[in-house]
Design goal:
The complex is a heterodimer of chains A (436) and B (743). With 436 residues, chain A is α/β, with parallel strands linked by helices. Helix content of chain A is 35%, strand content 15%. In chain A, helix 7 (116-125) runs parallel beside helix 15 (396-407), helix 10 crosses helix 11 (251-257) and helix 12 packs across helix 13 (274-288). Residues 1-43 of chain A have low confidence and may be disordered. In chain B, helix 8 (268-280) runs parallel beside helix 10 (300-310) and helix 25 (677-683) crosses helix 28 (722-734). Classes of the chains: A alpha/beta (436), B alpha+beta (743).
Chain lengths: 436, 743
């Protein structure tokens, strides 16, 4: 059934028609729960989809264009108008331009560090990080924090998923929150012809029927054994075992990851490329109960010939974000899902001798929308050539605070690190009040 | 109100009344450091979530928990153009208006106008907001009365009385101004008024009491049941039967206080499995199990322990542990030129353990290493450990068993460690010089470590140059050419050192019993006392008396009856995790589990590294570093060697692990390998029944129970493909909790 693709359906329609009548593929537990209860409950069920621009996306070529600056600053692209009067973005982002009313741009993010690793740590955790890429993460990523606070909305679906795998120089992990809150890494490209999730797929020579009979046997042995009873570790093991077995042998989780169940025309709208198919998978996972799905895009570290790199990457990113906004809106889910597009920093306003742009953290842009955040806004501004914040500086902690607040996570939440020290999840950041 | 409640209420009134009387009266001077600051602490003003955090709150910044009263004075009296206090009309001071919520205050209403705290603050302002002066009495300590108590089923409540002692000999009741914290709120709560209330659980707990810059501790014991004569008698009998070792006597002493009875002794099969896993990180083979079961000598456990300690697996397994603690990393040294350091250090650790080098020498050689990292292996420790905080925190956690990180930025809130302690320890390493090394390395390597001519550490706040000193130890007397690290090593390894032997004893106890006497093992504090101080003292003393002989320490622990208790709990000890009245089961660690699977499935794991394949048959516990690629080891919690804390190794179960068990190709390959056990069983001439028996011996170190035998045999019969059937049977056994756990 493909009732969703042409017609826009309001919340009310969904209620009247029922989710399955719309061919949503999966029972939308998340949203049904949200609809069935009061608004405070809806708030607590919100989720997050991240487009992480690994390596650093050029703000000047995308969300913060400087058409009046000299050529060596403004770059090759022209701005286009969006559905919001006064907001212009790159001509390579027509899909986002169409849904600009639902999205907001923060143009004054800054943290002043120009090295990938510590910057990625800063943007992922709110805290300045190690200065060597090889160094250990010190604080948990926001995805892990969200996973820890909220858990999965639905038991078997991993709360925090990274597509295709964790990036950000190793700083998308849980650190002292515990290994259970590391992202579940997809380990595959959702746009691949033979896409399957390695961790959920069985080795080639192992049949599902064998797994089922093994599993049955295991249950019998576990039940017969008397060793190590009464141990809490035993209870944990048992609960993880039944979850894992269910994930591998059951339909529910397979189904959540199975984007072949999506309408092909909807998949086309997202774009038949890695970013697009990752985005539709992210939406599917959110519907099944994940609370944070991070799509790692990139690599955006265009020191040389930036146009060549952007030319292949911008349009897919635009299609993925644009289609996601429309799709969520069609399903009446946009208010329940925060969309965030950011990387560790932006790029230098001045184009370098190799026709590229270098690292720039003194002023760059991120995209935020959905989840009840205000759309159609621009927060902050850069100076004439984009090099510095002109007004309304925003810190990495401010961004995290805004996301947490949208998700209903109390901003005074603290977790103890390995030494027992309570560490704030917002690192002193304050909500961007213009957006909430 | 029933009578009991009425009495309780009366006691409260009495306690509160006595506090009020002990407050400074109108004629007494209000001191900033010892009257004003403690009130700010009690009200929560200087907490880490409010004005105490490094950035302050709305422009008003206090030192965390009031450990820097001079800064606080400045913030209150001088900053904000003096608007925070108003001597002419104290009640109109912003300090009081905000704290009492009369003016809008993000932190809400913290104090009632007219209350005692309010009056004290107000009087201090009225008297001219006098700063602390050098002749003011100094708070020397606080005491708790009572400082310990054993509760029972009826008596579950205890008001505490806190007394502040001053340098001029004066004392004062500060029960109401002190701050309290229970280390186990599920076991015992403490109210703001200092009343301990034990809940419906049993165990040991502490309450930390803080007043100004001093802390003190109340220790509570909440027995499982009222200790009866019968109970005491049965423990006397146990002690008589088992108490040859001081270990068992001290442990039994704790059971007596807690009303806990030990589990039964573990059977022989469980013991050989446990000992092999704990000493060698290796499962016993079916043959070893059979021989042990057949051994009728009474000293067979002691002989087994000796045999295990002589095996190369002992050295491999414990060098894995020490390579974690000493952070011998492979990551960051990815070119073949850089790798030798890692392998060299790994080999040296292993050789030291195999040779049973006394622990004091082991520590000294690492600490005082000089020379090239290409020729002197312990100098490689200085490759990963290279900053001020690395030095201080590694030494503190690995050898002293204390966590001193807090004191890098502020006074430790639950210990006596100050910033001065932190930077004086750092100063010991100020003259560690580095020369040479690969410039292209991601992390420098192949350096030469030497004693530099110059090098100082300054206190970040006072700017003072710090003299090298051990935490809680003396300042070192050093000549121009003396390496302060040698003085530190001498202090650490002297028989009187309060930390090093104790920490090692605790570490080894934690290794074998599943939990330290101090837990976590590297977090010794007065506010986190040992669950059995007599036991820990005795173990440490015995270790020192035997010249830091690590194998002796292991024998002492492993030959005890306490170590040999079953993991099956009884009614009295099922919730207990402090008194070692049963063996606490735990999941096999990543490397041990992988090796165990390789062993029982008779297919070694192939390990590869950037510089080539490891020799066939290399075991996971023998790998030199954490960077040898293995998805299985990563999923099962192999640590990245990022810190000296053993807590980095995660042995708790996680979903990803069970997913890997079910569907990992690594395990499936072992199950279906051509020369693996399943293939062999499918084609050997033995009956299914014989094969099932052999499988159970190899996998679980015991014979199948009748019901298990029936389940296994009927499964084999139901399957068409014999090799598949055996593969499935083997999988379902290595996935049982009994296999995954050391129990």
């Amino acid at each position: 059934m493909g009732g969703i693709k042409a017609t826009r359906v309001s919340r009310r329609n969904v209620l009247e028609l029922g989710a399955s009548a719309l061919g949503l593929g999966l029972v939308d537990l998340l949203r049904l729960r949200a609809l069935g209860s009061g608004s405070s409950r809806a708030r607590a069920n919100k989720s997050l989809i991240v487009f992480w621009t690994n390596g650093g996306l050029s703000q000047q070529d995308t969300y913060d264009m400087k058409p009046d600056a000299p050529p060596e600053f403004r770059g090759s692209y022209r701005p286009i108008a969006t559905t919001v009067p006064g907001i212009q973005i790159t001509e390579r982002f027509p899909r986002q331009a169409r849904v600009m009313k639902q999205l907001s741009i923060v143009r004054s993010v800054h943290h002043e560090n120009g090295i990938h690793a510590p910057s990625a740590h800063w943007m992922q955790t709110g805290y300045f990080g190690p200065t060597l890429a090889r160094n250990a993460p010190q604080k948990p990523s926001f995805g892990s924090v969200i996973g820890r606070v909220r858990g999965a909305s639905e038991g078997l679906i991993p709360p925090y998923v990274a597509i295709p795998q964790a990036e950000a120089f190793g700083y998308q992990g849980a650190v002292y929150l515990g290994a259970a809150y590391n992202p579940f890494e997809l380990g595959a490209n959702p746009n691949a012809m033979d896409f399957r999730v390695p961790n959920l797929a069985l080795p080639r020579e192992l049949r599902l029927s064998s797994v089922r009979s093994r599993t049955q046997l295991l249950r019998e042995f576990d039940a017969l054994q008397r060793e190590a009873d009464h141990a809490s570790v035993n209870d944990d093991l048992n609960s993880f075992k039944s979850q894992a077995l269910e994930m591998v042998t059951g339909e529910k989780v397979r189904n959540a990851f199975d984007i072949s169940k999506e309408d092909p025309r909807l998949r086309d709208r997202y774009g038949r490329h890695q970013y697009g198919q990752s985005a539709i998978l992210a939406r599917r996972l959110i519907e099944s109960g994940s609370t944070c799905v991070t799509i790692n895009t990139g690599y955006w570290d265009h020191h040389d010939d930036i146009d060549k790199g952007l030319e292949t990457q911008l349009s897919p990113l635009d299609a993925a974000i644009g289609a996601l906004v429309e799709d969520l809106e069609d399903r009446g889910m946009l208010d329940d899902v925060v969309i965030y597009c950011a990387g560790e920093f932006g790029r230098t306003p001045l184009i370098n001798g190799n026709a590229g742009r270098d690292h720039w953290a003194n002023c760059f842009s991120v995209l935020l929308g959905g989840g009840g955040l205000k759309g159609g806004m621009v927060v902050g501004a850069s100076e004439y050539r984009g090099g510095k914040v002109r007004e309304r500086p925003v810190s990495p902690g401010d961004l995290l605070a805004t996301i947490y607040q949208a998700l209903g996570i109390p901003l005074d939440t603290h977790f103890e690190d390995a030494t027992g020290r309570p560490v704030s999840i917002v690192a002193g950041g304050k909500t961007i009040h213009e957006l909430v | 109100m029933n009578i009991k409640n009425a009495v309780a209420a009366f006691v409260v009134i009495l306690v509160m009344g006595s506090c009020a009387l002990a407050q400074p009266n109108q004629s007494q001077q209000v001191f900033f450091n010892t009257d004003v600051v403690p009130i700010l602490t009690k009200l929560g003003c200087n907490g880490g979530g409010c004005h105490g955090k490094a950035t302050g709150q709305n422009g008003f910044r206090l030192s965390l928990f009031g450990y820097e009263p001079d800064l606080d004075y400045e913030a209150i009296v001088q900053e904000a153009r003096g608007r925070r206090i108003f001597a002419a009309a104290p009640s109109r001071s912003m300090l009081l208006l905000k704290a009492s919520g009369i003016l809008a205050h993000g932190g809400g209403k913290r104090v009632e106008p007219g209350s005692e705290d309010w009056l004290t603050l107000s009087r201090w302002i009225e008297d001219g907001a006098r700063p602390a002066l050098s002749m003011d009495p100094v708070l020397t300590r606080v005491s708790v009365s009572p400082d310990r108590r054993t509760f029972d089923v009826e008596a579950r409540r205890q008001p505490l009385q806190i007394t502040a002692h001053f340098s001029n000999g004066a004392t004062r009741d500060v029960t109401r101004q002190a701050v309290y914290q229970s280390n186990d709120p599920e076991l015992a709560e403490i109210s703001d008024a200092g009343i301990v209330q034990v809940k419906n659980r049993s165990g040991l707990f502490t309450v930390m009491v803080r007043y100004a810059d001093q802390i003190s501790v109340f220790q509570g014991t909440a027995p499982h049941t009222k200790v009866t004569n019968a109970h005491a008698a049965s423990l006397v009998a146990w002690e008589k039967a088992n108490g040859r070792s001081f270990v068992d006597r001290h442990v039994a002493g704790r059971w007596k206080q807690l009303g806990i009875l030990p589990s039964l002794p573990a059977d022989d099969g469980a013991m050989i499995r446990r000992l092999s896993l704990d000493i060698c990180g290796t499962l016993p083979t079916a043959t070893e199990v059979n021989e042990y079961l057949a051994d009728a000598q009474t000293d067979k456990r002691a002989r087994l322990i000796d045999r295990l300690l002589d095996r190369p697996e002992y050295a491999s397994y414990f060098s894995l542990k020490w390579a974690d603690i000493l952070r011998n990393r492979g990551r960051g040294y990815s070119t073949s030129q850089q790798r030798p350091g890692t392998a060299l250090f790994a080999g040296w650790i292993r050789d030291s353990i195999a040779a049973n080098v006394p622990y004091d020498r082991f520590v000294t050689e690492i600490l005082t290493a000089v020379g090239s990292q290409e020729t002197n292996p312990p100098a490689v420790w200085y490759r990963t450990v290279r900053t001020t905080s690395d030095y201080v925190e590694s030494i503190a956690q690995a050898f002293l068993g204390i966590r001193i990180q807090c004191a890098q930025c502020h006074h430790h809130p639950a210990e006596r460690w100050s910033q001065a302690d932190y930077y004086q320890l750092a100063a010991v390493f100020a003259r560690v010089g580095r020369r040479g090394g690969f410039s292209d390395a991601e992390v420098p390597t192949s350096e030469t470590i030497y004693l530099a001519e110059e090098g100082v550490v300054v206190h970040p706040r006072t700017g003072q140059t710090m003299q090298p000193r051990a935490p809680g130890g003396p300042e070192f007397k050093l000549g121009r050419y003396d390496d302060p690290r040698r003085s530190l090593a001498r202090w650490m390894t002297s028989p009187e050192n309060p930390y090093v032997a104790r920490t090692m004893a605790n570490r080894m106890w934690g290794h074998f019993l599943g939990r330290g006497v101090i837990h976590p093992i590297d977090d010794a504090r007065s506010t986190n006392p040992p669950s059995n101080p007599e036991l820990l003292d005795a173990l440490a003393r015995d270790f020192v008396d035997h010249k830091f002989d690590v194998k002796h320490l292991i024998r002492t622990i492993c030959n005890s009856s306490t170590y040999a208790l079953s993991s099956r709990s009884n009614e009295s000890n099922q919730d207990d995790l402090q008194s070692f009245a049963r063996y606490y089961p735990r999941r096999l660690s990543a490397e041990v589990l992988l090796d165990a699977m390789s062993q029982v499935l008779q297919t070694p794991t192939k390990f590869r590294s950037v510089s080539g394949d490891f020799p066939p048959g290399t075991r996971a516990i023998e790998l030199p570093d954490e960077a040898v690629p293995s998805n299985f080891l990563d999923v099962f919690g192999r640590p990245l060697r990022n810190s000296a804390c053993e807590c980095e190794r995660v042995d708790s179960p996680a979903l990803g692990q069970t997913l890997a068990l079910v569907s990992s190709p690594e395990i499936q390959e072992k199950l279906v390998a051509d020369k693996g056990l399943a293939a062999r069983l499918a084609t050997n001439m033995k009956s299914d029944a014989e094969n099932v028996r052999e499988i159970f011996m190899a996998v679980l170190a015991r014979s199948p129970r009748p019901r298990e035998q029936i389940v296994a045999l009927s499964f084999l019969e139901s399957q068409k493909d014999r090799k598949d059937a055996y593969a499935s049977l083997l999988w379902s056994l290595v996935a049982t909790n009994e296999f995954l756990l050391n129990h």
